[in-house]
């Protein structure tokens, strides 16, 4: 009998250990599945333009909902993840790298998948497959269509923000097609060229714009309107905005890196414009230097171009047509606020931008709260509309034209005084930095307005899901 009991105890313990191993295996498989979902979700959010200053908070709340012990640290284009497992007493580190982009349709789809998981509509495994399908799907609009949209957007923004005339619009459409071709066809095929795309595009646009503006002493085409209008879609407004929002939300590392990059990006554009204008000035001694437009569209017509430019921005950023009505409404109201505020706060772009951003943020967050839409996708085109107008109010994008004239004069003149040389140098430095500082002023004003609008609509946050807005 004792032997039989000993053998039964042995087999019982063996079956028990196998049962424990099976439970541990199932537990580990389930944990890995949830971790994989978080990794794919994080990659999709970075790739499709989620608000970077809320990304860490978003991932922390997601891990809590999925009952995972996760810690996250975001840097531009990179997310560090650490997952701990108390049952197995192990931890795992993941490094997620993804190019940062903006795709308003896919961003909304990724957020919808996340909400289905949080509200137990979908399982983690099914949601992971949906994210894989989303990540591998093609863009809504082809590069050829995006090039056409670039031309259309350039034609619409020129009279709206830069005092262009009706005859400037076809020219801006053609040059905008050239910029779009360089961005969507040439830049993706050459990594070396993509690094100098901004400088090269601004040189080409400035050269062509000054050549056209010189015709008939500027009475046919407006040099400043053509150049600024065709470069409006590659301005680093969103980059600087993300940086200022990150700094304001105490994400110092990511915000500082992004702000510094955006300032250097702005300087690249300014240098390119100066070089392009100087090159044409060397060729033609009678090149125009006047930045004022002889003819411009009536200010009341600008309100017609706002919806058209908003549609162009939405299409370039891959938004669906069903998303556009709310975008157009919010963008139009934001522009009205900005337009009339600029009459009161002259040469104060930060205050004008803050007021417009507050109204845009309140409307977008109310849309999200009442109609359960995605606030980010609704407000981004409206925010983008504010950036060119703020730059136009100070005309800093073309501050380098005076530097271009100094370059041409200094190369053709043999005698210059020390005082004149010093004045030229100091003016050149000031004009090169002016564009970057103007972009920072606009971004700071917008970020303050957006933060206040979020507090106004969500004073105590949200219960189950994080606030997904700018």
UniProtKB/TrEMBL annotation:
<dbReference type="InterPro" id="IPR051361">
    <property type="entry name" value="ThrE/Ser_Exporter"/>
</dbReference>
<feature type="transmembrane region" description="Helical">
    <location>
        <begin position="140"/>
        <end position="162"/>
    </location>
</feature>
<feature type="transmembrane region" description="Helical">
    <location>
        <begin position="193"/>
        <end position="213"/>
    </location>
</feature>
<dbReference type="InterPro" id="IPR010619">
    <property type="entry name" value="ThrE-like_N"/>
</dbReference>
<feature type="transmembrane region" description="Helical">
    <location>
        <begin position="433"/>
        <end position="458"/>
    </location>
</feature>
<feature type="transmembrane region" description="Helical">
    <location>
        <begin position="351"/>
        <end position="367"/>
    </location>
</feature>
<feature type="domain" description="Threonine/Serine exporter ThrE">
    <location>
        <begin position="303"/>
        <end position="453"/>
    </location>
</feature>
<dbReference type="Pfam" id="PF12821">
    <property type="entry name" value="ThrE_2"/>
</dbReference>
<feature type="transmembrane region" description="Helical">
    <location>
        <begin position="326"/>
        <end position="345"/>
    </location>
</feature>
<dbReference type="Pfam" id="PF06738">
    <property type="entry name" value="ThrE"/>
</dbReference>
<keyword id="KW-1133">Transmembrane helix</keyword>
<keyword id="KW-0472">Membrane</keyword>
<keyword id="KW-0812">Transmembrane</keyword>
<feature type="transmembrane region" description="Helical">
    <location>
        <begin position="259"/>
        <end position="280"/>
    </location>
</feature>
<dbReference type="GO" id="GO:0016020">
    <property type="term" value="C:membrane"/>
</dbReference>
<feature type="transmembrane region" description="Helical">
    <location>
        <begin position="225"/>
        <end position="247"/>
    </location>
</feature>
<feature type="transmembrane region" description="Helical">
    <location>
        <begin position="168"/>
        <end position="186"/>
    </location>
</feature>
<feature type="transmembrane region" description="Helical">
    <location>
        <begin position="374"/>
        <end position="392"/>
    </location>
</feature>
<feature type="transmembrane region" description="Helical">
    <location>
        <begin position="300"/>
        <end position="319"/>
    </location>
</feature>
<protein>
    <recommendedName>
        <fullName>Pheromone-regulated membrane protein 10</fullName>
    </recommendedName>
</protein>
<comment type="similarity">
    <text>Belongs to the ThrE exporter (TC 2.A.79) family.</text>
</comment>
<dbReference type="InterPro" id="IPR024528">
    <property type="entry name" value="ThrE_2"/>
</dbReference>
<dbReference type="GO" id="GO:0022857">
    <property type="term" value="F:transmembrane transporter activity"/>
</dbReference>
<feature type="domain" description="Threonine/serine exporter-like N-terminal">
    <location>
        <begin position="36"/>
        <end position="279"/>
    </location>
</feature>
């Amino acid at each position: 009998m004792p032997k039989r009991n000993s053998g039964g105890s042995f087999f019982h313990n063996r079956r028990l250990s196998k049962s424990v191993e099976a439970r541990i295996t199932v537990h580990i498989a389930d944990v890995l599945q949830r971790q994989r979902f978080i990794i794919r979700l994080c990659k999709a959010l970075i790739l499709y333009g989620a608000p970077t200053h809320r990304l860490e908070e978003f991932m922390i709340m997601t891990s809590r909902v999925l009952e995972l012990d996760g810690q996250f640290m975001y840097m531009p284009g990179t997310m560090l993840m650490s997952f701990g497992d108390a049952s197995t007493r192990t931890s795992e580190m993941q490094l997620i790298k993804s190019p940062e982009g903006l795709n308003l349709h896919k961003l909304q789809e990724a957020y919808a998948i996340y909400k289905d998981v949080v509200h137990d509509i979908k399982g983690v495994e099914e949601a992971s497959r949906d994210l894989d399908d989303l990540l591998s799907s093609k863009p809504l609009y082809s590069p050829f269509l995006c090039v056409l949209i670039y031309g259309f957007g350039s034609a619409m923004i020129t009279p709206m923000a830069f005092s262009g005339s009706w005859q400037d619009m076809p020219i801006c459409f053609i040059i905008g097609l050239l910029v779009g071709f360089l961005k969507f066809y040439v830049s993706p095929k050459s990594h070396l060229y993509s690094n100098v795309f901004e400088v090269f595009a601004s040189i080409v646009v400035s050269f062509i714009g000054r050549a056209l503006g010189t015709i008939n002493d500027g009475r046919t085409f407006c040099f400043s309107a053509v150049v600024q209008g065709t470069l409006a879609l590659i301005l680093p407004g969103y980059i600087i905005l993300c940086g200022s929002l990150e700094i304001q939300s105490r994400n110092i590392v990511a915000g500082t890196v992004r702000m510094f990059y955006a300032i250097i990006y702005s300087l690249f554009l300014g240098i390119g414009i100066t070089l392009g204008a100087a090159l044409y000035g060397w060729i033609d001694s009678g090149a125009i230097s006047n930045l004022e437009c002889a003819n411009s569209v009536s200010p009341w017509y600008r309100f017609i171009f706002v919806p058209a430019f908003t549609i162009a921005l939405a299409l370039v950023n891959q938004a669906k047509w069903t998303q556009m009505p709310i975008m157009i409404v919010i963008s139009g109201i934001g522009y009205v606020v900005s337009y009339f505020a600029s009459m009161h706060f002259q040469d104060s772009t930060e205050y004008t931008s803050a007021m417009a951003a507050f109204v845009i943020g309140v409307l977008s967050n109310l849309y999200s709260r009442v109609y359960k839409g995605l606030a980010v996708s609704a407000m981004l085109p409206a925010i983008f509309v504010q950036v060119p107008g703020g730059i136009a109010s100070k005309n800093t994008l073309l501050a380098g034209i005076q530097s271009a004239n100094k370059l041409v004069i200094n190369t053709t003149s043999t005698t210059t005084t020390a005082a004149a040389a010093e004045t030229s140098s100091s003016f050149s430095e000031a004009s090169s930095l002016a564009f970057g500082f103007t972009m920072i002023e606009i971004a700071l004003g917008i970020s303050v307005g957006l933060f206040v609008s979020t507090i106004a609509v969500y004073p105590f946050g949200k219960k189950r899901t994080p606030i997904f807005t700018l």
